[in-house]
Specification:
- The protein is α/β, with parallel strands linked by helices.
- It contains 13 helices and 14 strands.
- The protein has helices at about 30-40, 75-80, 80-95, 120-135, 140-145, 150-160, 175-185, 205-215, 250-255, 285-300, 315-330, 345, 355-370; strands at about 15-20, 45, 60, 110-115, 165-170, 195-200, 245-250, 265-275, 305-310, 340, 370, 395, 400-405, 410-420.
- Helix 10 (about 285-300) crosses helix 11 (about 315-330).
Length: about 425
């Protein structure tokens, strides 16, 4: 009897051929994977601005990034943190894919960026300048740096991408949705190559203050590397992070024609909205459930084909229980045979860039056939009874992995990746 091919179809297939990351624990792909598989957290005392009497004083803050490695010094001074990170990560992804966009038909290549709070730095500086000096204090680049689509525009300019450029924003689901958008564009024959990912620099006074007031940040200020504890009995919130992750996606035959290395194949994407609450997830998890359902259906696989889920895993009281409940509802008894982990304790929560970064994690996990651990998971919390990969990463022949993301406003997103068969 012939073995069924997972995701077998005559439709155009999309593969990952390059990846680039800029994060607190590491700024290149190999050391990033080492930090993920060994559980080396980027958490540290936050130094970007004075936190005063804030209840949280730690973050996964990038402290050793030199933008001049990726752009000229004048541009590095002009751009916001998020745009510097996005240009750098996209350039690293291009280099990793060994692709020259100048050799691709200009109308067949595009860029899509996901973000939720980029350009806040430019807006804050413009406001400060205005109140100090009037309109002349705003700065000539306030509009260029401050509009929502600035990141994708800067990447397109720097990498010479002339076919398509767009920015998407769906809170913490943005990165996943950006990749889903890219898959759709290639699958429907609009493009052959897409650079897709997310960037975020939320370590800024306004966002920081709001998150402190919302009581979603971990308060383990004395132990930043063990602060974020997804699915754990002692979890108390997120470790805020910053950075960017971008991937080069190609139509399979195009990638093969140029001899590209393939990390993994993206089979499907599903999204949903709960329309329930501005911040809190629905207690029954219908958004997670429907996003998984749509993604698995589009991927043309059976639930039992899935081996690993990179969970949203925010270490908040509500999310971890709700996410677990949705996984169990969709997968039934197979949920207890799945490996589920959250890698946010290592990278911090990158908000709109989280989904893109965790897609990189899934692709590397498939490529190296190793399931990442959930750092700081010691004792399961009530309602959290799945295999969260405690203690250490584990070698495993991963066939299919899911990446789950959820954002404010009840936005949910799921990507399905599989090992590319030879």
């Amino acid at each position: 009897m012939a073995t069924r091919e997972i995701g077998d179809s005559h439709r155009r297939r999309i593969v990952i051929t390059g990846m680039g990351v800029i994060t607190a624990p590491a700024q290149r792909l190999r050391p990033f994977w080492d930090s993920i598989r060994h559980g080396i957290s980027g958490g540290k005392p936050m130094t970007r601005f004075a936190v005063g009497d804030a209840p949280t004083t730690i973050a996964a803050q990038i402290t050793d990034f030199d933008a001049r490695e990726f752009m000229d010094a004048k541009m590095a001074r002009r751009l916001d943190y998020s745009h510097r990170y996005s240009v750098a990560a996209a350039r690293l992804a291009q280099q990793d894919a060994r692709i020259e966009f100048a050799k691709v038909d200009a109308d067949r290549v595009g860029i899509v960026e996901g973000t939720s709070a980029s350009s806040n730095e430019a807006a804050a500086k413009a406001d400060e300048g205005y109140f100090k000096r009037g309109y002349k204090g705003v700065g000539a680049f306030a509009l260029i740096n401050g509009y929502s689509g600035a990141g994708s525009g800067e990447i397109a300019k720097e990498l010479g991408i002339r076919g398509h450029s767009i920015t998407l924003s769906s809170s913490s689901a943005s990165g996943n949705d950006a990749l889903g958008y890219a898959v759709s564009m290639i699958r429907h024959e609009d493009l052959d190559v897409m650079v897709a990912g997310g960037a975020e620099a939320p370590i800024a006074p306004g966002i920081w203050g709001a998150l402190c007031l919302s009581q979603v940040l971990s308060r383990r200020n004395n132990t930043p590397q063990s602060a974020m504890r997804p699915f754990d009995k002692t979890r108390d919130g997120i470790l805020l992070g910053e950075g960017a992750a971008f991937l080069v996606l190609e139509e399979l035959s195009y990638a093969l024609s140029r001899g590209a290395r393939i990390y993994a194949e993206i089979l499907g994407h599903g999204r949903s909205c709960e329309a329930y609450h501005p911040v809190a997830p629905h207690p029954d998890g219908p958004g997670y459930f429907r996003a998984i359902q749509k993604a698995v259906r589009q991927a043309q696989i059976d639930p039992e084909d899935v081996d690993y889920i990179n969970a949203h895993g925010t270490a908040t009281d509500a999310n971890d229980v709700v996410e677990t409940k949705a996984i169990k509802r969709f997968f039934g008894s197979h949920a207890y045979r799945l490996a589920v982990s959250s890698t946010k304790p290592v990278t911090g929560h990158l908000l709109g860039a989280a989904g893109a970064l965790e897609t990189v994690v899934c692709a590397l996990a498939i490529h190296h056939q190793e399931i990442p651990l959930t750092l700081n998971h010691d004792e399961p919390g009530e309602g959290c009874d799945l295999d969260y990969v405690r203690g250490r990463s584990r070698p495993y022949p991963i066939r299919v992995a899911l990446n789950l993301s959820s954002g404010f406003g009840g936005k949910n997103s799921c990507l399905v990746l599989r090992r590319y068969p030879s």
